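Notes, p. 3: input format for complexes.
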Amino acid sequence: MTASSRAPGKIILSGEHFVVLGAPAVAMAVNLYSKIEVRPSQSGQIEVTADIPLHLVSKADKRPPASEKQELLEPLRLAAKATLDHIESRDRSLHLDASCQIPIGAGLGSSASTTVATISAVAKSRGAKLDRRGIFKLAFIPENYLHGKPSGIDQATCIYGGIIQFRKPSSIKALNVKRPPSILVCDSGVHRSTKALVGSVVKRSQKQIGRFQRHIDEITTISNAVIKALRSEDDLELGLLMNRNHELLRQIGVSTPGLDGLVAEARKAGALGAKLTGAGGGGCIIALVDDDKIRSNVARKLRKKGGTLYNVSLDPKGVE
Ligand code: MEV
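Output follows (320 residues plus (R)-mevalonate):
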């Protein structure tokens, strides 16, 4: 049977990295999508193909596109296999075709989005129904393969959509806000490995226990305050919290001079706050812009600095 599913990408408003160490984080699903189509394969085995727009592959990444592609394909094969195993389907004849609007390796959840859509589409193709908790659990198989020991926040956001508060191992709370924050995403064009970045932060946190505990305490306060600011539509406060969050990420070494430059430029151009989003080391920053004039000013200035801009809005639905 043929089937298809799509899932959104994500941005993290507060708490990346510290969420791996147990702090709460806040994330928002955004309207950049991956789509998975499934049909029977000719070989009778699991086959995966993907249409990855090459302009989304980093300028700075020296690896050939083939390895970039492989990085996307193997987790999808794993996600498909895990789903078939889970629903006890003996029929392995499955061709999976992925297309993805989300830049890869940029902190916007391309891998979580494609794996979540894969799990959903494969289950559908066999007439099986998986609930969101079931998809969340299965998504750890490909996500662990790709990212080492991720917290689960990426797949949770892509599955549930909207804005969520997440805490390891599996606390997912949907946040209903009347007006989602108005966010600009800017991709620095430098792509990097989440696995290596998360691994280095975890290692450092084991050596500097006292210092990291203070950071975790502060991020816990920040994430709680972010939720309050979102509920009360207090953009000024939200901007300040984003700025402070960026500073903590800088202090633990996951920002770069390039990202710091984009963040500073966004603030100078009128953003109420700006921070890196995701694992850092490159990838994207997000800027909070409260009106259209500021939005286009910030976008223009960031583009001048070499960034690629994404005008995102909230995806309310998650995987479907
Ligand atoms: C990546 O989007 C977010 C990190 O916190 C890793 C994770 O939570 O798994 C850096």
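The pocket of (R)-mevalonate is lined by residues 12, 16-17, 19-20, 107, 147, 150-151, 153-154, 194, 198, 278-279 (CB under 6 Å).
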